[in-house]
Amino acid sequence: MAVSSAAMKRRDGKPEEGGDNGVKYNINTVIMTGILSALLSLVLLLLAAPPAAPRLVELSYTYNKDAPTSPKLRPFNMTVLKNGINELGIWVVLNEFCTSEHSGTHVDAPIHFARDTWALDEIPLEHMWRVPGVLIDVSQAAAASKERNYAIPVEELEAWENRYGVIPDFSVVLLRTGWGAKSHDIADYSGLDAERKNNFPGLSEEAATWLATHGSRHGHVTGVVGVGIDTISVDVGNSTHYKAHNALYSRNLYGMENMNNLDKLPPHNFLVTVMPMRIGGGSGAPARIIAEMSDEPVGMPMHRQHVDSAAMGLHAQAQLLLVGVGLLLIPRRAH
């Protein structure tokens, strides 16, 4: 429909700027729209970008004849059945192995020292996959004590909390005694003496109980789910009644023993994934254990959260920017 020349004039008789719809754009609006559009593009780019690859730390020893194992148990032994070309001209490597459940880096199931608790295959997967980790380093205290059977006291655990805060719910607690440096020499590592007793650091019964009851004291839903150490046992080497084992396992915490590379972990802000061989009814099993380091704060494991708050925050920012850009793009009528 044709627009009359009268419609294109203001009351003062001058032509209306902005074309036939009588709309005028402000230059500041155009500039702000450009800036916000660029910011929006950046946010959307960040949302689309894959997350940075985590830094992984191997916490297990290689399973071979040198895997650290108590001299009282059957060590790892592998027999080569085939290594080469078979009668059909096909390359084949095939071995079989025999070992104790508790050789090398391994997991102790609660049933190992506590009746009516979980066997290995009954430990919930969420207790072993990407669980927040805490490292308590007692190596200096153990060395200063000059005691091979140094029993980690509650005071060392409390000192960690005084410095770093309360151990989070649903965590695994790893204890570094420094004994892992001896793992290349099983005689030194086990401390086996003439009376066939091992000698190395471990948890006191009081410290084990403190960890096992930590969640209930702090009103947590689950509490600590597992405890690991860089020695043959969570108990001291010369233990006879294994009271630390019982204090932990009777409350369905699992153990990790003969852990490697604990000196490469920070005090907190990492995730731990524990992958034992799934032995039905087992009291323990060889395990691959991996730490996942992150530059972002680590809280409750992501698989236990209903929403990813970080992603939610980014999406909210993107939505706000979209709204802002939309509002600015709405043309303004000149007065």
Tell me what the structure shows.
The model is unreliable at 6-10 and 302-312 (pLDDT under 50). This protein has a seven-stranded mixed barrel. A two-stranded antiparallel ribbon has the order 1-14. The protein has a two-stranded antiparallel ribbon with strand order 3-4. Helix 1 runs antiparallel to helix 8 (309-329) and helix 5 (205-212) runs parallel beside helix 7. It has 335 residues and is of the alpha/beta class. The protein has eight helices and 14 strands. A hairpin with a 7-residue loop joins strand 12 (270-276) and strand 13. The longest helix is centred in the N-terminal third of the chain and has 22 residues, at 27-48. Helices cover 25% and strands 21% of the residues. The two termini are 25 Å apart.
* Share of residues in helices: 25-40%
Oligomeric state, counting identical vs distinct chains: single chain
Output the number of helix runs. Answer: 8
Q: What proportion of the residues form beta strands (DSSP E)?
A: 15-25%
Give the low-pLDDT segments.
6-10, 302-312
Rg is 31 Å
Our measurement of the CA-to-CA distance between the termini, rounded to an integer number of angstroms, reads 25 Å
Query: Looking at the structure, what is the overall shape?
Result: globular
User: Within the largest sheet, what's the order of strands?
Assistant: 5-11-10-8-6-12-13
Let me know the largest β-sheet. Answer: 7 strands, mixed, barrel
Return the average pLDDT rounded to an integer: 86
Total strands: the figure is 14
User: Which secondary-structure class do the elements indicate?
Assistant: alpha/beta
Order of helices and strands: EHEEEEEHEHEHEHHEHEEEHE
